[in-house]
Amino acid sequence: MSSSPTSLLDLSTNSLGSAGETRARITGFAGEVSIVERLQEMGMHHGMIVQCLGRTPFKGPLLYRMGATVVALRNGEAQCILIQTL
Amino acid sequence: MHTNSNPLEIVALVGAPNTGKTTLYNWLTNSKFKTVNYPGATVEYAIGAAAERLKADYLFMDTPGTYSLFPKSSDEEVTLRALYEHHRHQKVKKVICVVDGSQLERNLMLAEQIHAAGFSMVLVVTMSDLLRKNGMKLDVAALKNKFNSPVVLFDGVLGEGLMKIVDELKLLKVEEKDPKHLKTWSAEKIQQQSEILRDLAAQAYGHVDAAKIYDPTARIDRWLLHRFLGLLFFFLIMSTLFSSIFWLAKPFMDMIDKGFTWTASEILLLMPNSLFSEFLAHGLVASLGAVSVFAPQIFILFFGIGILESSGYLARAATLIDRPFSKVGLSGRSFVPILSGFACAVPAMMATRNISSKRDRWITNFIIPLMTCSARLPVYALLLSFLFKDQPAWKPGVILALLYMGSLGIGAVVAAMLNKILAKSEISMFMMELPLYRFPRWRVLLQQSFARSKGYLFRAGPFIFVFAVIIWAGTTFPNYSEENGAVKMETSYLGRIGHAVEPAFEPMGVDWRVGVGLLSAFAAREVFVSSMAIVFNVTSDDEETQSQGLLSSMQKAQMPNGRLLFTVASVSGLILFFMIALQCMSTFSVAVREMGSWKFAMVQLVSFNVVAYILAIALVQGLRVIGVA
Ligand SMILES: Nc1nc2c(ncn2[C@@H]2O[C@H](COP(=O)(O)OP(=O)(O)O)[C@@H](O)[C@H]2O)c(=O)[nH]1
User: Fold this and answer.
1) Residue of B79, B323, B360 best to disrupt the A interface, most CBs of A under 10 A
2) What's the gap in Å between B64 CA and the centre of ligand 1?
3) How far apart are CA B167 and CA B17, in angstroms?
4) What pLDDT score does A1 carry?
């Protein structure tokens, strides 16, 4: 089942450690160019499977796992990644 | 030992952060330190000759971690410059591209760019021990074909693969023409490349899922980054670090103190009643002792920060702190520089280079000198042990912890003010990779912390020596035969000068002797302690150890008007002064260099010292008004 593209930010707002981690596939990028470039250089790209691990305390950055990596992204950064939930 | 007269060929190590670049560099050059990416470890590129046993005529160059050849932070600009510009050395033509074996999918992009730029490359895949442990076998041939370059698996723990890397370097052919600068890749190009590289990584891994290497780390993070428990762990870890500076160091400090006391008394026994032995014992030994006593504390601080860094926790701490920091115009990326500011502002300011936003970096650099650096530690320790003389050790420990937090608080206030004043221009980025948790390599860590603590002692050493001579001679002559110590002091050269500047220090509740100490602290903060040791130790009776003697003569010291000199009020004023004042010329010069601006450094220097002076006076007078002497 797939839905229309949304941003990674919509994937989950669960706090870390709670159940219900969701997975999605990256479908593209949008927004601030320098952020998008940096995300891509860090190895995020079209077709990659991303899993949201949840949010850190104080409404802090969100944690995303892709392959053998976890990155912490701020809301604005996560928003630049377009996804399709799986 | 090279045979030809040409300068040695230079080989650059390039790779993303945390891929094991510095570890490989240390193996190649046989250097012991800098292994851990301690804040500031790879900030300037390090260059070292090949280890003797490799029998290779190369210079190796370690560069700051970079994700691409299109720099986004000044750290990455350093890497780019190191690759393309060379004054003293030859041009870089051979590159060792370091990729993490568990992160091929992401790390190969840099390899592709280095290849495209025309560098001759050996692709080194690190963490081969982790791959083996997880039953993964890389299809090396696939990587070789793609980049048309040799590929070597390397185990950074045991050094397996080292000789192979050197052999491949020797076989590597170098193009006649220089490597070219790459034009920034378009989004389409990056997209297209990343698809190719993803397929390549998948092919290299075969059917094994590389992601499972991260599973144990992810389990730990469920606790350490948990919404509530994560904060609890953060405070536990940080308070353990800073409180251990006091309780763990205590026995070692006592030992050192006894050692210096013994030396001084032996000197006086061997050569009684001579000016020279007087100088040695009460001048030199006393002042060196007063500062060396704090070496264990500084060692523990360096060691503790080293553990946090090499275990991978600092990246988590930065993530936890990002949100609160962003409220005052900083980002989580400012955390590591600020934390290392608790050791020393100099490497801390250099560590700000991987903050990509200029504004964040400006604010971070501005507040770093406010952090309780290791040179302040001896000063606080002396003043606190005076305030809490004959009381349980946990009390000064708690206050010290509060002072550490207080400096963070002052930093936050200043940052918030700057955040209001400075124009908001660019976007601030965080985007932090959380590396695998690892066990620190204890031996390396110990060696490194020893080297850093030694550096601390030797850096301050010359100043301590010079001021020991000046202050001892200044307080001894011309009336060196005077029996009454107080009279001798008052009529001494330094005493006369001191009286001239005394009015400036009187509002702070201190006399000329402390004033002289404060002025000498501008050479290095810890000189304050050695100055106090000379000025106040001259009359100590030799029953006690030096530090006890210093404390009891401080207790008895009086102002000209008969009031006690060191009171709760005046000592608090001194502490507040030291918290804010910028009394470190190395910090000043590194600020000029890092910010490329005299103005920045001057504003910092003047405003910190003026504010420190005014606030200290306000505190002392305020306390007196409410009846605290
Ligand atoms: N297990 C394992 N750990 C390694 C290896 N190489 C480096 N490390 C560890 O990985 C971390 C990062 O290494 P470092 O050399 O500082 O990376 P740099 O940031 O690229 O310079 C350190 O904790 C090293 O001890 C390796 O081959 N195997």
Assistant:
1) B323
2) 14
3) 25
4) 43
Q: Give the up-direction half-sphere exposure of residue B100: CA atoms within 13 A in the CB hemisphere.
A: 24
Regions in chain B scoring below 70 on pLDDT: 1-6, 32-45, 86-89, 456, 538-544
Residue B356 CA to ligand 1 centre (angstroms): 23
Q: Which residue has the tokens 């200044």?
A: B474
What is the C-alpha to C-alpha distance for residues A7 and A82, in angstroms, rounded to an integer?
Answer: 4
Domain architecture of chain B: domains with CATH? 9-208 (3.40.50.300)
CA distance B437 to B274: 60
Query: Does A74 sit within 8 Å of B225, measured CB to CB?
Result: no
Q: Which of B197, B423, B229, B224 is nearest to B319 (CA)?
A: B224
Is the Cβ of A13 closer than 8 Å to some Cβ of chain B? no
Question: What is this model's ipTM?
Answer: 0.88
* pLDDT, tens digit (0-9, with 9 covering 90-100), for B192-249: 888 888 889 888 888 777 778 888 898 999 899 988 899 999 989 988 887 787 778 8
> Which atom, in ligand 1's list, is nearest to the CA of B37?
16
Q: Which residue of A has its CA nearest to B322?
A: A60
Number of domains chain A contains: 1
Q: What pTM value is reported for the model?
A: 0.80
Give the pLDDT confidence of B154-167 residue by residue, as tens digits.
999 899 999 999 99
CATH code of residue A41: 2.30.30.90
The 8-class DSSP code of residue B331 comes to -
As a whole number of angstroms, the distance between CA B157 and CA B309 comes to 17
Residue B438 has φ and ψ, to the nearest 5°, of -140, 155
Record the tokens describing residue B406, joined without a space: 């207080």
Task: Report B:173-232 residues touching A (Cβ under 8 A).
Answer: 187, 190-191, 194-195, 198, 210-214, 217-218, 221-223, 225-228, 230-231
Chain A contacts in chain B segment 320-339 (CB below 8 A): 320, 322-324, 326, 332
Is residue A37 one of the residues assigned to a domain? yes
Q: What is the pLDDT of residue B210?
A: 74
Residue of B23, B158, B164 to mutate, ligand 1, most atoms within 8 A of C-beta: B23
Whether residue A70 is contained in a domain is answered as yes
Which domain covers residue A65, as residue numbers? 6-85
Q: Using CA coordinates, name the residue in chain A closest to B102.
A: A68
Let me know if residue A1 belongs to a domain: no
CB B226 within 8 A of CB A17: yes
- In degrees to the nearest 10, what's the CA dihedral of B395, B398, B401, B406? -100
Structure-block tokens of residue B545 = 């150890």
Exposure of B625 by Cβ count < 10 A (0-12 exposed, 13-18 middle, 19+ buried)?
exposed
For residue B3, the model assigns a pLDDT of 42
Considering only CB atoms, which chain B residues are within 8 Å of A38?
A: 67, 72, 356, 429, 431
Which residue's CA is minimally distant from atom 24 of ligand 1?
A: B20
Look at strands B151-153 and B120-126 and give their pairing: parallel
Q: For position B538, what pLDDT does the model report?
A: 54
Q: What is the DSSP string of B517-556?
A: HHHHTTT-TTHHHHHHHHHHHTT--TTS-HHHHHHHHHHH
Helix then strand count (H, E) for chain B reads: 28, 7
Question: How many A/B residue pairs have CB atoms within 8 Å?
Answer: 148
Chain B (412-431) residues lying within 8 Å, Cβ to Cβ, of chain A: 427, 429-431
Per-residue pLDDT band for A2 (boundaries 50, 70, 90) equals very low
CA distance B610 to chain A (A): 36
